[in-house]
Amino acid sequence: MRKHVLAVLVCLMALSAPASAADFQAVPESLRDEYKFDLEGMFYADSAAFEADVEWLTARIQQIADLKGTLAASADNLYEAYRLNDEIIPTWWKLWVFSYLTYATDTDAYEYYERISRLSGDLEAKIQFVKIETQSIDDATLERFFREKPELADYAFAIEQARRYIPYTLELPREETISSLYPFLTGWSERLYQACIDRTDFPEIVVDGDTLSTKINYSALINSKDREVRRKTWQGYFGGMAEQRDLYALNLVKAIEARDKVATMRGYRNFPDSKFFDSFLSYDDVSAYHAEIARHAYIREEYDRVKAKKIRAATGYDTLYIWDRTAEPEDFETPHFDIVQATETMKKALSPLGEEYAIELGKLLDPTNRRLDIVGGEKRSTGAFSTGWPTGTWLFFSFSYNGYLSDVSTLVHESGRASNRSTATVRPMSPRPRPSPTSSSSRSTFTGMRPISRPGHTTWSSSSRTSWGS
């Protein structure tokens, strides 16, 4: 995907003329409503429709639960458990995605997200037996089951996955308890983080007569030609967050401790070890990979020195501060692209990926489909991510789109994920919403995965918060 991003940026520079700063609107006023999700039209018209899906899901989970104690007895029972699980996946994901997007677009609207999070813990507890009973079947019996019930081949990978977790599976009562408690062990952390963000006093800055929030307009302000505006933006934004740094740190540490505790109970080294295992990686291999990156840190250090030298030459600054990393020569017009320019250029740049990809990308980017929510405002989740559900719709959310290259890069990255998954998830793949569903080779799996804090991959915009500006 990084190659795709670079290709898009080249095309942006070559094919698009950035609008002048004076009249630039990242999302044209006439299109703002189209670049917001239509959650009622896409998901549930009202709470009754949401509850109907909850009721349907609960009933199907109970059908699986009624098979408890029978899976090792016959191929038919084993098949029925996995078939029912396969059936519930799209609805379960849909409930999760709707609940989180409701919250992401209005962080005061937490009811749906809390409801599905807590309910999912109880529902997952009811089906933990499937994993454990699958693990109890010996190889000879399992081979016989596949001969007696050829349809089981549809779930061969799911069954293999369940058995792969034998070293990290506890006895059934403990697995059921952990599943039911997990939303309470970890579900609070994102809400606390967002509450801290919402209560942080991000200052406002007056620029050319306009009063702009350093939270909502951060990327526009930090790219200002006025050094004093950049300084006030940086110090205001991070100074505001520093006022509650103790709560941010407490939240992070306690969330890590809770996840580590559950992982070590199962026999993993720690929580990262469990996540690496989920991805068919080992802790040692990943650690070695990171160590190799660290050994080449001098490349980034050299880049920063070159960048700093360039900024000094362009500006005449003797001392550079962190808010100067987006500084450019006075006569340089920082490229920025409204959402219409960005999406049209993206489609051209990514067309070599094929017709199927182009179709899915076009559906995502078409504002009439209301699958992009990018208009900034208060009470919105931070960051940017794509999300969706198997056999359903994939969407893109951003705290705000300001039209700079970092915003376009994030849109390309997450749109790529959404388009890939739209083409790959023709059939359901897992029993629970996962952050990164990338394999289309399986259908359902019982691996004991927990409710996630966000049903989608999250990307922080790199608009000068984390690196020297592009």
Describe the protein's architecture and organization:
With 470 residues, this protein is mainly alpha-helical. It has a domain at 40-185: Up-down Bundle (Butyryl-CoA Dehydrogenase, subunit A, domain 3). Helices cover 56% and strands 5% of the residues. It has 19 helices and six strands. It has helices at residues 2-15, 39-42, 47-65, 75-105, 111-126, 128-136, 139-148, 156-164, 172-186, 188-199, 218-222, 227-242, 245-265, 271-278, 283-295, 297-315, 339-350, 355-365, 405-424; strands spanning 204-207, 210-213, 372-373, 384-388, 394-398, 457-459. The strands form two sheets. A four-stranded mixed beta sheet has the order 3-5-4-6, with helices on both faces. It has a two-stranded antiparallel sheet with strand order 1-2. Helix 1 (2-15) crosses helix 19 (405-424), helix 3 (47-65) runs parallel beside helix 5 and helix 6 (128-136) crosses helix 8. The longest helix has 31 residues, at 75-105.
